[in-house]
C-alpha cells in the first residue's frame, strides 16, 4: 500500500510539473519581457549583452579597458581617449536605454489593461525594435573605436585578461 501511495504521489507531482510554465516565475516583473538585470543595465547605461559580437571577437569595450588600464599598460593618451569614449558612450546610451524602458513599460501597460490592438502592437514593437537596434549599434560602435586605440599586443592581452580563449586572431586592420 505504501508503494502505491508513493507512486501516486510521484505521478501527481510529475503532472503538476509538466503543466507549469517556465515563465511562471516572471509574473511579478514590472516589465515582464525584461529581466531585472536588463532593466538595471538599461537604466545605468550598461552593456546588457549588446556588444558581445565585438567583445568576444577581440574588440574591447571602453569600460573594461579602463578597468584593466594598468595591466594593459595604457599610455596617458590611451587612458584619456578611453575615458572620453566611455563618457561619450554613456551620454549616448543612457537616453536610449531610458526611452526603451519607457516604450516597454507602455507596451506592458497596454497588455495589462487589455487595451492593445494589432495596430498599436505593430507601431509599438516597431518603435521598440528601432530603439533596441540603435542601442546595440551604439555599444558596438564604441568597441570599434576602442579597438583602434589599442595596439595588437594590448588587444590580445585584453582578451586574455578577460578570460577569452586566444584561438582568435585579434589583429585588426584598423
Record field, number of beta strands: 0
Given the structure, what is the number of helices? 7
Average of pLDDT: 88
What is Rg? 23 Å
Outline: extended
Strand pairing plus helix content: what structural class? mainly alpha
Residue windows where pLDDT falls under 50 for at least 5 positions: 169-174
Q: Give the termini separation.
A: 76 Å
- Overall number of structural domains: 1
Helix and strand sequence: HHHHHHH
Strand percentage lies at: under 5%
Give a quick account of the main beta sheet: strands, pairing sense, barrel closure.
none
- Work out the helicity level: 55-70%
List the defining traits of the structure above.
174 residues, mainly alpha
Give the gist of this structure.
The chain is an all-alpha fold and 174 residues long. It is built from seven helices and no strands.
Descriptive notes:
This protein has helices at residues 2-19, 36-44, 52-55, 62-67, 76-112, 118-149, 152-161. The protein has 174 residues and is mostly helical. It has one domain (29-161). Helix 2 packs across helix 5 and helix 5 runs antiparallel to helix 6 (118-149). 22% of the residues are buried.
Question: How are the SSEs placed, and which strands pair?
Answer:
Layout: H1 2-19, H2 36-44, H3 52-55, H4 62-67, H5 76-112, H6 118-149, H7 152-161
Helix pairs in contact: 2-5, 5-6
Amino acid at each position: 500500500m505504501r508503494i502505491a501511495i508513493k507512486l501516486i504521489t510521484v505521478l501527481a507531482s510529475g503532472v503538476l510539473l509538466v503543466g507549469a510554465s517556465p515563465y511562471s516565475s516572471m509574473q511579478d516583473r514590472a516589465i515582464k519581457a525584461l529581466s531585472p538585470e536588463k532593466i538595471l543595465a538599461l537604466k545605468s547605461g550598461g552593456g546588457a549583452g549588446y556588444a558581445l559580437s565585438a567583445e568576444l571577437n577581440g574588440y574591447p569595450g571602453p569600460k573594461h579597458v579602463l578597468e584593466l588600464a594598468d595591466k594593459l599598460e595604457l599610455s596617458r593618451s590611451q587612458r584619456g581617449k578611453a575615458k572620453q569614449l566611455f563618457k561619450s558612450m554613456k551620454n549616448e546610451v543612457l537616453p536610449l536605454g531610458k526611452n526603451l524602458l519607457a516604450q516597454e513599460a507602455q507596451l506592458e501597460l497596454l497588455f495589462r489593461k487589455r487595451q492593445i490592438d494589432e495596430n498599436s502592437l505593430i507601431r509599438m514593437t516597431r518603435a521598440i525594435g528601432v530603439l533596441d537596434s540603435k542601442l546595440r549599434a551604439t555599444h558596438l560602435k564604441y568597441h570599434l573605436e576602442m579597438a583602434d586605440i589599442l595596439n595588437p599586443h594590448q588587444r590580445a592581452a585584453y582578451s586574455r585578461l578577460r578570460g577569452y580563449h586566444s584561438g582568435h586572431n585579434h589583429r585588426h586592420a584598423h
